[in-house]
Amino acid sequence: MTLFIDGDALPNILKPILLRSVERLKIPTKVIANKKIHIGDSPCIEMIIVSQGADRADDMIIELLSPEDLVITADIPLADRVITAGGHAIDHRGTRYSSDNIKHYLAMRNLFESIRESGEITNGPKPFTQKDAHAFANQLSAFLQRLEKRKK
User: Fold this and answer.
1) What InterPro entries does UniProt report for this protein, alphabetically?
2) What's the confidence (pLDDT) of residue 8?
3) 79 closest CA partner among 64, 90, 69
4) Mean pLDDT estimate for the chain
């Protein structure tokens, strides 16, 4: 399994959580973004910088993705592509996307996008909190524990 991190908008508070997991389990990790994102120093982490442009990082993740890989992203359309390709996706707030729920999240995202495009003023996402970081850490840990059990 490879861990992919969609580097766009990755909260800094998650970087040490990710680094600890990567180092503890020696998980091959690719951070993909259009600028350098420093997660931490580890031989397990590779930084891939893509050119500027819509969905360039997303396209690179999908190109490199294998079934069962895990992608960390807050990008719901990317999560949908990951699930469709047989991968797994967790967002920054600890939501684990699956084939059972991704279409719901995508529909909600598209609904709110169309409301915003119509000129309606909507609230943006809630500020990222320590509680969100904790939920993310728990979901990542649970996913990695299931993975370790399957290896045995």
Assistant:
1) UPF0178
2) 82
3) 90
4) 94
Q: Which domain holds residue 120?
A: 3-151
Long-range CB contacts (within 8 A, 24+) of 110-115: none
Q: H/E element holding 89?
A: strand 88-90
How far is the C-alpha of 81 from the C-alpha of 32, rounded, in Å?
Answer: 16
In order of 21, 50, 114, the CA distances from 54 in angstroms are: 30, 11, 18
pLDDT, tens digit, for every residue of 58-111? 999 999 999 999 999 999 999 999 999 999 999 999 999 999 999 999 999 889
At 125, which CATH number? Answer: 3.40.50
Name the 3-class secondary structure at 97: strand
Using DSSP, state whether 1 is helix, strand or coil.
coil
Rounded to two decimals, what is the model's pTM?
0.93
C-alpha–C-alpha distance, residues 113 and 111, integer Å: 5
Enter the tokens of residue 79: 């999560």
pLDDT attached to residue 35: 93
Indicate the number of domains in the chain.
1
